[in-house]
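REQUEST FORM: STRUCTURE PREDICTION
Request ID: SP-0412
Submitted by: Lab K.M.
Chain count: 1
Length (residues): 211
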Amino acid sequence: MEAALAGDISADLDHVRCPTMIGHCTRDAVVPVSCARYLARRLPQATLRLWDDANHAFNYSKKWRQIQDDIIEFATGSRPEPAHTTRFATILFTDIVASTARSRAAGDEAWARLIRAHDATADLVLANRGGRRVKSTGDGLLALFDDPGQAVTGAREVQHELAALGIEIRGGLHAGQVELQPDGDVTGIAVNIAARVESVAPPVRSVSRRP
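STATUS: Completed
RESULT:
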């Protein structure tokens, strides 16, 4: 480190004629970010990339993937595709029957209250059955379960509890590999199939409570 800090390349900067990327963490505790800004001013074809981090060594930064991708994009001209994580899950899609007509008849305020009650009720059932709501779809939901058996039971219980609120739904289940997206959403063929199953499923007006 002492040898590196003792070097002075300022006299050589005027000879650099190629595109150059200068990357620096803004809170670097070893070398101040002003050094990076100085280099960027001196080099005519410099691209300055700053990252909000305190590490001097990029590989120790929590933003290492962003830093790595920035370097790859500069060197190659294209950014790597985001890394996706896959897992096995049972996917549940639900949809409120005749939602368009119901929302029009209820009005915006009453419909919004109904959707909040729908989501809260479904979330409680899902949590009790080891599931979680990935997102609301406006008039339904997309949820994931780890266990297929719990998914079937949970889906039936969601139907039952929502029926008690006067909300009639249809649901579709499918199990398979899903891709977990950085924003928390899930994608993949298994998700598409679950959506197709839901779209052709008949509505269930009453579901008997199972012991």
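NOTES: Residues 206-211 have pLDDT under 50 and may be disordered.
Reviewed by: T.R.
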